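User: I'm writing a short report section on ligand binding and want a predicted complex to refer to. Could you take this sequence and 3NM and write out the structure as C-alpha cells? A short remark afterwards would be nice.
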Amino acid sequence: MTVDYSVYLVTDSGLVPEGLTLYDQVKASVENGATIVQLREKHLETKEFIERAQAIHEITKKAGIPLIINDRLDVAIAVDAEGIHVGQDDFPVAKLRQILGPNKIIGLSVKDVDEAREAIKENLVDYIGIGALYATATKELKKIPMGPQGAREVLKVLRDEGGQHIKSVLIGGINDSNASRSLYTSAIPGKSTDGIAVVSNIIASKDAGLATKKLSDIVKNTTKSFLVDNNTTNINPSSEIIENVKSISPMVHQITNNVVKLFSANVTLAIGASPIMSEDANDYSEFAKYPNSTLLLNTGTVQEPQIYLKAVREYNLNLKPVVLDPVGAGASVLRRLTIKNNLNNGHYTVIKGNEGEILTAAGIETQMKGVDSVEKNSIEFLIAAAKKLALNTRSIVVVTGETDIIVDGSLTGEYYIDETVKQTVVTINGGHHFLGKVTGSGCSLGSVIASYLGSNPKTPFLATITAVALYKEAGTRAGKISSGPGSFVPNFIDELYKLTLENNPKSWTLDIKSV
Ligand code: 3NM
Ligand code: MG
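Assistant: Sure. The C-alpha cells for the complex follow:
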C-alpha cells in the first residue's frame, strides 16, 4: 500500500469548538484534503474509544485513506485500523510488528537523532513523526521544539544511516502560516519529509474543511507561488527591474535598528521606494496586505522576539518578501539566540549579512567584534557557507564585503531537494572603502534589496543582484567625488538617486561574475 502522508490529521476531541463534534471535524477535514487520520484520544474509556474509532473508520474508509490509532493496540485491532502510532514510552515497536504483521502501518514519534538511529536499527516502522517542530499548546513537550534545523538533522540520519526508506511527517505547531516553509526548510538534498501532521489548526477550527483545504493547497500548490523559480541564466542587473521599482514604488516596512533609521529611510526614498518604520504589531497585518509591500528585519538593536516573529508571520502568510539582516549575529549569546529564533520561525526571501553574520547564521563558529566582522576567510569558504545557509533556509543569501556574494536558494517550486542540486553563485566586485566608514551602509543595502523584491516578487534572484549592483555602483561613483566619509553620505544618496533616474545598468563599471 502506498500511503499519502502529505496532510496528516491528528485528532484531539478536547479542541473541538462548541456546537461541533469530532466526527464533524474529521468528516470535513477528510472531504477537503486530509490524506491520513490518526485518532488520538487520551481520556476516553476503552469502550467509547472503540465506538468512536469505528465511526471515524467509516469516514476514512469511504475516502479510501488510512486510519491510524494512537497508542492503543487493542483499539487498533478491535476496529481493524490500517495502523498504529506510538511514542517512545508506549507499546514497543518490535512487539507491535510481531502482533500486527507486516501489512499494518506503524508510526513512531521521534524527538532527536538518537531516537531516529534507534528506529533505523530496529527497521520496523513505516514512518516517524518528527517533533515537536515548534511550540504547541496541544501536547506537553518533553523537549524544547527542534525547529527545521533539528528536523534536518533527523532527516540526515535517515538519509545517511540506512533509513532512506522510512517516511516522515513533521508535527508540532504547524499551521497555514508556517506549513510551506516547514516543508521547504526541513528538506535536505536527497531526503525530505513526506508531509505535515496537524492537530489544532484543523480540529480547533470552526471550519475544519476550509482549514484543511488551505493546508492541502499549501502542500500542493501555494508553495510554488511563494517560492518562485530562481533558475535564471541572466545575472546582469536589469533595467526592467529598476523600472518596476520606480513605477510601483513599493511600501518597504522596516523594523530596523535605532542607529540607521533616518539613513535607511532616505536611501529607500532615493531609489524610488516608500519606507515605513513600525514595530507595533497592530500595524503588521494591514501592512502585509498592501500591494507589493515587503518587510525588512534588521536586528541591530535587539528587540523582543515577538516584535520580529509576529511581523514575519504576517508577511509569510501573505506570501510577501521578507529580508533578514542579522546585524551582529555572532556578537553575544542574545544575538545568537535571536538569529536562531528568527531563522527557525520564519521564512526569508533574502538573508543578507557580512561574513561573520552569515557564518553565524550558517552555524559556523565565528569571531565578532561588536557588529563588525573580524573574520578573514577565503572567498571559497564564504561561498560554501553561503550555499549551506541558502539551502537550509531556502533563502537567497547575500554576503557583503569587498566582493559581494549572492547565492540562490534553490527555490525550484518543489520542496524536496534533489541530490544533485545546483546553486547559482554570483560575485560582484567594486564599491569604495568609504562605504565601510559610514554607519548604516550595510543596513540600508537591506532596504534597497527589500525595495527591489517588493516590486519584483517573481524574480527575486535577479532583483537581489540588481539591488546589490546598484548599491555598489553608487558607492564607487560617490567615493570618486568625496573627500571623506562626511561628504560621501550625501554624494552616495545623490548617486543612488541619479542611477535610478538614468536606469542604464549597462553603463555600470562593476565586475559581475557567475562562479
Ligand atoms: N505530538 P498541534 S507535538 C500530538 O512532538 C503531538 O511528537 C507531538 O499539535 C510530538 O498541531 C503534538 O496543535 C501536538 O500543534 C501537535
Ligand atoms: Mg503515546
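A remark for your report: The domain at 239-514 is CATH 3.40.1190.20 (UDP-N-acetylmuramoyl-L-alanine:D-glutamate ligase). The first strand starts at residue 7 and ends at 10.
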